[in-house]
TrEMBL record:
PANTHER family assigned to the protein according to its UniProt record, in alphabetical order: IODOTHYRONINE DEIODINASE (PTHR11781), THYROXINE 5-DEIODINASE (PTHR11781:SF4)
Pfam hit, one: T4_deiodinase
Family: Belongs to the iodothyronine deiodinase family.
Signal peptide: none
A GO molecular function held by the record: thyroxine 5'-deiodinase activity
Keywords carried by this UniProt record: Oxidoreductase, Selenocysteine, Thyroid hormones biosynthesis
Annotated TM spans: none
Described purpose of this protein according to its UniProt entry: Responsible for the deiodination of T4 (3,5,3',5'-tetraiodothyronine).
Keyword presence, Oxidoreductase: yes
A Gene Ontology biological process term: thyroid hormone metabolic process
UniProt protein name: Iodothyronine deiodinase
Keyword match Cell wall biogenesis/degradation: no
Gene transcribed to yield this protein: DIO3
Length: 130
C-alpha cells in the first residue's frame, strides 16, 4: 500500500500533463496460491474474466484516480511488457520512453518521479531559434 500511496501522489502532481493508466494483470499473491503475510487483501487466483473484474474493483477502491483497465486472461499485456507482477512505464506516441525495473524490487515510484521531473524541466526550458 505504501507504493500505491506514492503512486497516488505522483498522479496528483502530474495528472494535468500526463495520462496515467493502470493495467490490472494476474494477482501476484492470490489467497489460494503463493500467499504473502503483508497483503491487505484476500484475492483468489483469477479463473475467469469476472474474477479479474471483481479483483480490479477491490484495487480501484484504494487506487489513484486514474484509468484502470484489465489484462486479458491470456495475460497478453503482462507478457508484452514483462510486467510480471508490477512495472512502471512511460509511453509517448507509441514509444517506450521509460521502463522501470520488474517488481517487486525494481518497482521504484521514486525513480519514475525523478524521470518525470527531468522530463518536465526539459519541456520548460526556453528554446532559442537558430
Amino acid at each position: 500500500m505504501a507504493r500505491m500511496s506514492a503512486f497516488q501522489r505522483l498522479v496528483t502532481k502530474y495528472q494535468r500533463d500526463v495520462d496515467f493508466l493502470i493495467i490490472y494483470i494476474e494477482e501476484a499473491h492470490p489467497s489460494d496460491g503463493w500467499v504473502t503475510t503483508d497483503s491487505p487483501y484476500s484475492i483468489p487466483q483469477h479463473r475467469s474474466l469476472e474474477d479479474r473484474v471483481s479483483a480490479a474493483q477491490v484495487l480501484q477502491q484504494g487506487a489513484p484516480s486514474c484509468s484502470l483497465v484489465l489484462d486479458t486472461m491470456a495475460n497478453s499485456s503482462s507478457s508484452a511488457y514483462g510486467a510480471y507482477f508490477e512495472r512502471l512505464y512511460v509511453v509517448q506516441n507509441g514509444t517506450i520512453m521509460y521502463q522501470g525495473g520488474r517488481g517487486p524490487d525494481g518497482y521504484q515510484v521514486s525513480e519514475l518521479r525523478t524521470w518525470l521531473e527531468r522530463y518536465d524541466a526539459h519541456r520548460a526550458e526556453p528554446r532559442v531559434a537558430g
